[in-house]
Design brief:
By secondary structure, this protein is an alpha+beta fold. The protein has one helix and ten strands, in the order αββββββββββ.
Amino acid sequence: MQGPATKLGVRQQGFSLLEMLFATVILLVGLVAVAQLVPASILMNYHNRADSSAMVFAQRKLDVILDQPLNPPGNSFTDQQGNTYQLGNPATPNIVQGNNVFVFSNYTLMSFGGLPPLAYPTNGYGFTYQDPTDPNGTTYDVRWAVIVTGNGATASSKRFILGVRQLSGSGFSMPITLDTMVSR
């Protein structure tokens, strides 16, 4: 009586259980790595939005200041909301008027040391502003300084250094400083 015929040199084809286990582990490691990127990208998106909002707000405020004449009456102006902006006094030329500034790596930056200015509206060289369109109620600390060049009676040029930093929100956001000069 003969038994079933088998060939010793023939191997079975397909994946072994061990190979399937290794492939599953590699796939899971990849999925976990990708899943960890999702919260990080959401956080980066939030911070980029906050930085963009602060930059746009700073540019709008600087445009409001730059739209004023070089020598306005009283060296200040009042906007539509009743906020008075100080634009530097030509009687004290070539000194920083307003908030303190410092130089870091050849860049002039606004100093945000000390207490934030009063709430918006204010009368001076800074204010605290809460964005009414932001669902998170983000608050900004806005400050500026002016360096007037002139003969002591009228200004021939003014350098405006405006800084904005986010006071509220999640995490730390770098302050933004805009620096520009106007002359006749």
